[in-house]
Predict the 3D structure of the following.
Amino acid sequence: MTELPPQESYKYYSTQRPIGPGTCPSEPFNKPVHIEFYEDREPVQGETFRAWGEIIYSQPLTEEEIRQYELKPSRHNKDMREWMERQTQAVGKWEKAKRVPESKRFTWYYSDFGCYALKEFVMPEQLSERARIVERQEAARSQKAQKKKRGLDR
């Protein structure tokens, strides 16, 4: 395809197989606007995985489409940036509360803007795993507080 990607586009990497017919979503309302084929399964710059190529859409794919076609979204997609920003704030607050040593933190506090920023070396998968830990601990803490409130916990 020779069309250039739109200004706000969504890039996905084919990590499991070369791109060909039936290997990526192509819905009438969201067809690929650009496909780049790699010569081989190559490392993706700035990521921790290799891919056979990249596919660009004008609209984001659904979670089901990403899973079904075994694609990896680019960390630069608008939806991924927003998702990672929410996770970064939650993880940053948790790291501060737990007094995680600086050398083991995924975030740093950006005092000029009053928010947390993700350290450059942290991959989206690492951030997601730490965010799941935070969520599980918050859920357990909330459940314990509810039990205590109801008088079930002594």
About this structure: Helices lie at 63-68, 78-97, 124-149. The CA atoms of residues 74 and 80 lie 7 Å apart. Residues 124-149 form the longest helix (26 residues). The chain has a mean pLDDT of 90.
